[in-house]
Amino acid sequence: GMLQTLAMAFLGTIAASIISIPLGLMASRKVIESSLTRFIIRRFLDFIRGVDILIWALIFVRAFGLGPLSGVLAIFVADTGTLSKLYSEAADNADNKQIEGLVSSGSTKIATLRFGLIPQVMPIFISQSLYFFESNSRSAVILGIVGAGGIGLQLSERMKAQYWDQAFFIILLILIMVAIIDRLSRALREKFIGE
User: Fold this and answer.
1) Is the CB of residue 23 less than 8 Å from the CB of residue 41?
2) N- to C-terminal Cα distance for the chain?
3) Confidence of residue 195 (pLDDT cuts 50, 70, 90)
4) How far apart are CA 160 and CA 107, in angstroms?
5) What is residue 170's predicted lDDT score, i.e. its pLDDT?
6) What are the DSSP calls for 145-184, one per residue?
């Protein structure tokens, strides 16, 4: 159950991070100049973000049945809206000097994005994704309680059967898992981004 919970959090976060990069860049004024296109993309992201992860989980449990697939999809959809918003804000706040230097030397739009914008925002993207993985490892437990599988489902079953000693042991395992993920995430952030 613990591995299933970790897999749900990892797969949902990775998929959301990958999809959020192009969506976030398309929602940025430094990438897309058309305000109508940005407006449509941003309202779509607002809609996704406006629905809570538990509601997405209930929708996917109804659509695909009980199990971890519903949890992965709920994390994926909920995180896509939030990460895309954060990525677009990071792109909007990037330094213009590198971009202007590339444009003045005749770089194409793609080359300007690749060498002027992406290197500036990628550390922020990695940091945000790692934070969301930490958060989703806790959320996946709650999603399990509503039927998305993992350790949360086992915790819910133990509590319903009033096996309090087993429920307490599962809670201890969850706390240890979250502490380990927090340490690993901090180490990865320091490796890729620095202090």
Assistant:
1) yes
2) 34
3) low
4) 63
5) 83
6) IIII-SHHHHHHHHHHTT-HHHHHHHHHHHHHHHHHHHHH
Residue 175 CB neighbours (<10 A): 11
Reported as a single tens digit per residue, the pLDDT across 49-58 is 888 888 888 8
The CA R_g of the chain, rounded to the nearest whole Å, is 20
Q: Are 61 and 146 in contact (CB under 8 A)?
A: yes
Query: Which residue carries 């949890």 as its tokens?
Result: 71
Separation in Å, CA 150 to CA 48, 79, 100, 131: 24, 19, 49, 21
Amino acid identity of residue 60, one-letter, is F
8 Å CB contact between 189 and 126: yes
Tokens 């971890």 belong to which residue?
68
Around Cβ 115, how many Cβ atoms within 10 Å?
A: 14
